[in-house]
Amino acid sequence: MTLEMKNLTPLVTVIIPSYNHEKYIQESLEGIKRQTYANIEFFVVDDGSKDNSVELLQKLQPEYNFQLILQKNRGLCKTLNSIVRERATGKYISICASDDIWEPKKLEWQVNFMESNPEYGMCYGKAITINENSEPVKSYTNENVKGGYIFDSLLVREFHPPVSYMYRADVLEKVGYWREDMALDDFYMNLKIAEEYPIGFIDEFIFSYRIHDENTAKRNPLRIFTSQRTIIDQYKHKEVYRKAVSEWHFRRFYHCSSYTKTKLNALVSLFYSLKYINRKEFRKAVYRMIAEWK
Q1: Residues paired with 69 in a beta bridge
Q2: Rounded Cα gap, residues 105 and 107, in angstroms
Q3: What is the pLDDT along the chain (294 residues), one digit of tens a residue?
Q4: Angle CA(81)–CA(85)–CA(86) in degrees, nearest 5?
Q5: 92-95 and 12-18: which strand pairing?
Q6: How far apart are CA 250 and CA 30, in angstroms?
Q7: Helix pair 280-293, 241-256: axis angle to 10 deg
Q8: Is the sign of the CA dihedral 197, 182, 18, 87 positive or negative?
Q9: In what order do the strands lie in the sheet with 122-130?
Q10: 134 in Cβ contact with 101 (< 8 Å)
């Protein structure tokens, strides 16, 4: 793309927060390099990795043409706030996890959507789910996904938009950026934006979402559910709040029944989940708990 053509297209700020993903990050960088949309500024922020990520990133920087920022561990939300507030100059912001891979037209599709729909605060697309070897695996990531005014659906977790988001930078500024004491940056921000704006859905597979043993939800499920509840409780004034809490208890009962160390948490939420006794997930969770305690 020539300089003249770049000047006619909006700048996109691309951010990869990097933490202990030396095994995967070059694939993420390659996904950015292959984008058909060229007018980007590209930041990679290593948040105090303990593996060889820093050495690898320093080696790859010339080839992939990114601005490398090295810092002591601050956490994802503090890192995003710092880059978006102090360094980003793009009209749009898009974040790629350091273990995920973007499809080549990801940014092109999203910029076209956002430019055609200026009333939308953000947009997302579908995910191909892959394992640690980059092989496709079965996933429920794309179930029930949709766009529009979807605040209620997000609060009750009818679905969770695959993490392929493109934000308007001015919308992030208006809603106040990320809350830095939260584990769930995406759930928090999606709700903040969905409360005020419609959310765009692009019916294309625009990235690969990697599932492996180091995913946060697998490492610390209780932290995830505690953060979910804290975020939900910010919306007590909403009519859908009670349903959201009820669904939260059912999710906690179902997921925590899978882990020995969280069985008691599952048992607490069992009482609140009795209304869902006819769901197959309810019966499955009960069987798991009984089998574990035999």
Answers
A1: 45
A2: 6
A3: 454 555 579 999 999 999 999 999 999 999 999 999 999 999 999 999 999 999 999 999 999 999 999 999 999 999 999 999 999 999 999 999 999 999 999 999 999 999 999 999 999 999 999 999 999 998 878 999 999 999 999 999 999 999 999 999 999 999 999 999 888 899 999 999 999 999 999 999 999 999 987 655 555 778 889 999 999 999 999 999 999 999 999 999 998 887 777 878 888 888 888 888 998 889 888 888 777 554
A4: 115
A5: parallel
A6: 39
A7: 40
A8: positive
A9: 67-71, 40-47, 12-18, 92-95, 166-168, 122-130, 199-210, 101-102
A10: yes
Q: Which CATH number fits domain 3-216: 3.90.1150.10, 3.90.550.10, 1.20.120.1200, 3.10.20.740?
A: 3.90.550.10
Task: List where CATH 3.90.550.10 sits in the chain.
Answer: 3-216
Please give the structure tokens belonging to residue 143: 């179930």
Rounded Cα distance between 63 and 59, Å, is 8
For 195, the token pair is 């409360």
**Dihedrals φ, ψ of 211, to 5°?**
-110, 125
Residue 210 belongs to what H/E stretch?
A: strand 199-210
**111 CB-near residues (< 8 Å, 6+ apart):** 9, 10, 12, 37, 92, 166
Sequence letter at residue 54? V
Rounded CA separation 230/203 (Å): 31
How many other C-beta atoms lie within 10 A of the C-beta of residue 284? 13
Residue 54 in tokens: 């820093």
Map tokens 């609140």 to a residue. 272
- In one-letter notation, the amino acid at residue 233 is D
